[in-house]
Amino acid sequence: MVTFLEIGLVLLVLAIVFGAYKVVKTIKPFVWNAVLGLVVFVLADLLLGLSIAITPISLLVVAIAGVPGALLVILLSYLDVAFVAALVLA
């Protein structure tokens, strides 16, 4: 015989699974944008010789704005306004 506690637990698990699905579905485009932005940063480093500081702020800009955000970060780094990699003295 099924008790109210078992029914409640099943409903709770279903709610958690549904909530996790919605969270993953919402975050997925931001993760793709961040990965694509990192690829653009690496290509800018290899092809143009630009060294861009990969910080949480630059990743956040790229995750929200996508490729245009990556181009903005590259432009700001090129103009030495922001996201400039620090010099390491040996």
Provide a descriptive summary of the structure in words:
By secondary structure, the protein is an all-alpha fold. The protein has a domain of 51 residues. 74% of the residues lie in helices and 0% in strands. The protein contains 3 helices and no strands. Helix 1 crosses helix 2 and helix 1 crosses helix 3. The longest helix is centred in the first third of the chain and has 45 residues. The chain is rod-shaped and about 70 Å long. The N and C termini lie far apart (74 Å). The model has no long low-confidence stretch (mean pLDDT 88). InterPro entries: BofA. It holds the Pfam family BofA. Keywords: Membrane, Transmembrane, Transmembrane helix.
Keywords:
mainly alpha; BofA; 74% helix; 90 residues
Taken from the alpha-carbon principal axes, the silhouette is rod-shaped
Helix content: over 70%
Main sheet: strands, sense, barrel: none
The number of distinct β-strands equals: 0
Low-confidence stretches: none
How many DSSP helices? 3
Transmembrane segments: 6-24, 31-54, 60-89
Keywords: Membrane, Transmembrane, Transmembrane helix
InterPro entries: BofA
Pfam families: BofA
Q: In a few lines, what is going on in this structure?
A:
With 90 residues, this protein is mostly helical. The protein contains 3 helices and no strands.
